[in-house]
Records
---
Amino acid sequence: MEKCSHPLKKISKIISSEDGFFCQNCGLILYQGKNNKYINTIKPNEIQSKTEIDPIDLFENAYKNTPFISIKKDSIYPTKRTRAIKLLEKFNNIYHFSDEIFFLALTYMDYIFKYIYEKNKTIKKKTEELYILNCLIISEKFYDKDVTIIPEYSLYIKHSIYDVDAADIKENEIDCLKILKYKLDHHSLYDILKAFKYNGFILEKEIDNHSIGYQIKFAYNYAEKLFRDIVFSYITIFYPPHIIAFVIIVLTRKKFFDSKYTKRVKKIYGIRQNDYKDCYEEIKRLLNLIEKGLKVSDCNNPIRESDIDQDSSTNKDSKDKENEEQKKDKITENDEKKG
């Protein structure tokens, strides 16, 4: 696999980090090791990206500050969400929009229905469909950066079981924009996970040079798979998206790479274990249930007391292992300081 050489004139300091740098040529984060030598991160060649933006500054000011949906656990919306997601997928299949557009639309949809159901409003199925459709249309307009684009409403009208026309769709779109307070630059969970992947979360020294391309692509695909497994679950409306994305990276690293370097990744993003501990445990439990045959998209809240009881011994073992890894990290960090 072709790798960036990280030319010195293209390397910039990460302002908030003691030993962090980034390459403007490919967008990767670099770590300064002993004797001022860089510990290089690496990613698939097809997602190389030139940038002059400090990736951690962007993370702190944009992704980390992205407000999450924060649905109340007694809200009615989680019981309605499965149907809403299926409708969103149906409309996306009609229009063939990209993943970026779809997952931003899902973010809009969560915000809008949170607002509606927390106001104890009741809406007809026809109105619900229009909200979902317009989340997709608004997302498409935002990504295309051209508000003059008029989607083919006829495509939706053709597939709708309700008596609607273009005027109904436009009127509902205005209502959506009002609920969103005309703030459309939200970052979806998919956007934030991509940022982690573009910045690089694998160190070159962890990779076997004889199978470098295979290993990196396999890890990146695994992170994508974890995202797909949980993206429609209750987790995404109860935890901040940057924490969920970071847990996906941590789980990927735990599966494929040396745990001692995970500490560097945590440190560069300023994320402590306590920040993501609960989310990590919930995702691990959810993935365990998925392995047992649970379909997340057909469940409102798959975490039940019986599941928690069944998994208590597993969780204890997991926590013991996590504590052991933390001790190893501390020993490694002390050794690095001595060196």
---
Amino acid sequence: MAVLAETASKELGDAMKVLLQCGLVTLLVATAGWASDGKKTEAQNNGLVGPVRTVSTQEGEAKFALNQAGWPVLLEIGGCKECEYDRQGTLTRSGGIVEGEFRGDRYQIARDERGNIVEQVRLGADGEIGGRTLYGPYGITEQNEYAGGVRVFHAEWRYDSNGHLGELVQYDRDDKIQTRTLRQTGASGNIKEEWCYGSKDELSYHILDTYNPKTDVWTWTSYAEDGSVKVEIETQDGKVHFYRQNVNDPNVFGQHFFLDPIGNTQHSFRGNADGTYDDVTTIYPDEKLHNPERLEWRDGTGTLRLKVEYEYELDGLRNWTTRRTWVWTPELGEKTLYRVDMRRLTYWGN
């Protein structure tokens, strides 16, 4: 199957900063999960293995200029600059070092008697509240954003009897509805249909999402208010059959999507208005999808435009401590060292 995607960030503090636009909201949620992911911790989502306590990354200086404008992918993959996690792998601090001082957010976590997260509060460097997220048995139930101690945004998640998201409503600082998204989901969790409405109850999009497990055919169609097709996608057996875009919008909802991994390979796509699509292939050393080895970008004509290779020095738990990024483009003509990144990790003891 395929999944829509707009961001690869897995850090809760970044991924769940939703925006007051239907399409972007759904894209963010599709990546981060409308409900919490009980299979992976936040540390694992950030590409880490083992009981990681802290991560401190020193990004190397680029060896040469590389204009990434218009590319469907950036060279940096995952991770964070300065992060701390609790013993359960939940993020408690995220940011960077500026002029020798930590600048970023801290997270206060509350759990129930079973250890499940029920509340997360995000605090800025000055200790002032920036966000508050509440969780229920199926995932996020409410999210609030603050500025100067005043709530400026909040959203509410509601789930169906099977524990799948059925409605997401976003409100502005005056508690007026800005977007309302309705979703129908099958008992197995596959999305069937979705609608999103704006602040004046105008339709932003209507989506039909179908998947046939017997044939492995997945189709996704987005309709405009007049019923015309805006974007249509069909995939089967790990390949895109076709992409159709009937609106001349470089940021149209549905343009970015990725397929479920097959073995150690992950494909991500960016559709184009002429019906072609860019294919970004990421290759990992094994099916655990940890520490990518190679990335290749081919444009809509199938021409290789970028190749990236990663070399690592690993610690005893196979987290990288040094990463060398090598780049090839037609302009370079040969594989060239682009950057060397280093990081220090500490771990929780027994």
---
Amino acid sequence: MRLKTSVLIILLLVTFSFASDLGIYEKVIENSTTPPDQIAEQLAASFKTSDLTFLNKIEVVTPNLVCKDSEKHSDFRAFLILVTCPSFDSLLVNYGNRYAANWILRVGVYQDQNGSQVQIANPEAMTRIICNDLPDGDYKILVDAAIKVKQKLRNTIIAAVEGNAVTTQMPPVRSDERIRKAKKDMIMMVGPMTFFKNRNQFPILNEVQVGDDASVTFNKVLAEVEQNIRNFKPAENDIDYHWCQNPETNLQWQIVCTVKSPERNAAVIGITRGRTEALSFHICGMNRDSEANPVPGIDHVAAYPIEVVVFEEEGKIKVGTTREMFRMDMFFWDAGKMAFMKYMKMPKTLDKSIKKAVTGH
């Protein structure tokens, strides 16, 4: 009996020892003295000459945008560099066109009281979440590939930016086992931590039957979605939800990147807008702000853009995106339940706004 108990304990310890904690963000450079705008320029230039594909560089707004009291504003800035990895993209859609949801790689640059920081949206954590509906063997292949992509990102960043190279896992942090099992973070509010096991987490906003030429149908739908986003005008409930500076521009959804497969009917469009960025950073930072750092929530800069996926599946061209309550849980869970409760209307407001932008109605 003692022998059996000892063996069981050893097995449990061995199993546990292989589990690791993964932040949805991973800090790569810490406390650089180089200003964030210069770092963003350096990274954009470096990614343009790497074997990753540079997509865009944008300045992301801070909580200043949703704060009427100018005395509480901060001069800290945040930037987003978007890239993709063509070989990884091709591998992903071998398992299904919907996995184009995992094509956008995000590098965030932001300031705090200690200097400039550089982070990535952790490709390993993202892949473990987005692809956790796949069988174990396929899942492992994609996770291993994502780890290699992460190293490519890290190598390019470290070579381009002066500062302390680190591998800090940043909140929200989850174990790889918890992600694999799609464990719930906030049981009543969000549901399983998965894109595709529970289709409610990735609603299909529109679908069109494939015509005689699937590629023609696909390109037509993709073009229509992009045009709808450009034509978007916010509804009254969207305008009224929360004050922001210059709502005529900061409530407009902007396309910041589009990645389209050269081989398959699959594409992902990255969208974002000022008030959504600013308010989410305010929510996840409001319990951490201080005189030294009034806008700590910009350490979640790599949460954006939001993914809109256009893909062929089951004889149809489908347009889908992540449910915003789930997406906010994925990227902002560490804000805490009270913050989620205080802003309970925000996810549904965003869901309606994004649907209107994507479908045109």
